[in-house]
């Protein structure tokens, strides 16, 4: 199953008797005031991550996520398509969260609200769904893409490739040992607001040594930006990709070893 769907695919599916459930992860004022996709429910980004001081940006917990999807009127067997208006980076975090908590069919809209609104109709006001009783079924650890700090250390010992999805100045200030940089925005086409063509994506990944035969560990600061990269790599068929949710924030708090300094040609 491809985790990324086109706008035309979604527009066609919305005309069927069994349309996907659409989740808009923008803030409520954007959703209601600017407009949203037809039938979309609003699940703001800050509601599906832990905002506590001890775990900024981490998963909200399966019970909290279940309550959130229940409020949104979502069933466990629904096809979900998530979107935002920031090239999909916030919606990708929703997708990864749903996958970790056992939702099998969740997709990311290629592009975002702005891209959709150029070609397809939108609505305003809030959709009030009928509540469900959503029961998450979190993936067992051996099936989950999540990896903890000890797992990252073990992956380093095995020769895994660490991929930093942050900006260049962040990378130069501190990065995990041996990491290469892939700014998550590099894969997005500025004009279409969706992904660049597959051939172009494969080429830019190969330039950095990010190839499907490698064990890959993704990190950023608080797991938002790696969500988009994780979904893109899944879309391209990469199978051995780990998601370091604690990212550099946790690594530094634990006094993990880092590298600093100017990026080389592969990481600029």
From TrEMBL:
Q: What class of enzyme is it?
A: transferase
Q: Origin organism of this chain? A: Saliphagus infecundisoli
Q: Does the keyword Nucleus apply?
A: no
One annotated GO molecular function: transferase activity
**Region (Disordered) location:** 118-144
A Pfam family in this protein? Rhodanese
- What span is annotated as the signal peptide, if there is one? none
Looking up InterPro entries in the UniProt record yields: Rhodanese-like_dom (IPR001763), Rhodanese-like_dom_sf (IPR036873), Thiosulfate_sulfurtransferase (IPR051126)
Does the keyword section mention Transferase? yes
Which keywords has UniProt assigned to this entry? Repeat, Transferase
Regions of biased composition (Low complexity) lie at 134-144
PANTHER family documented for this protein: THIOSULFATE SULFURTRANSFERASE
| E.C. number(s) listed in UniProt | 2.8.1.-
List, for all copies, the residue spans of the domain called Rhodanese. Answer: 16-125, 156-260
Q: Which CDD domains match?
A: TST_Repeat_1
Protein name according to UniProt: Sulfurtransferase
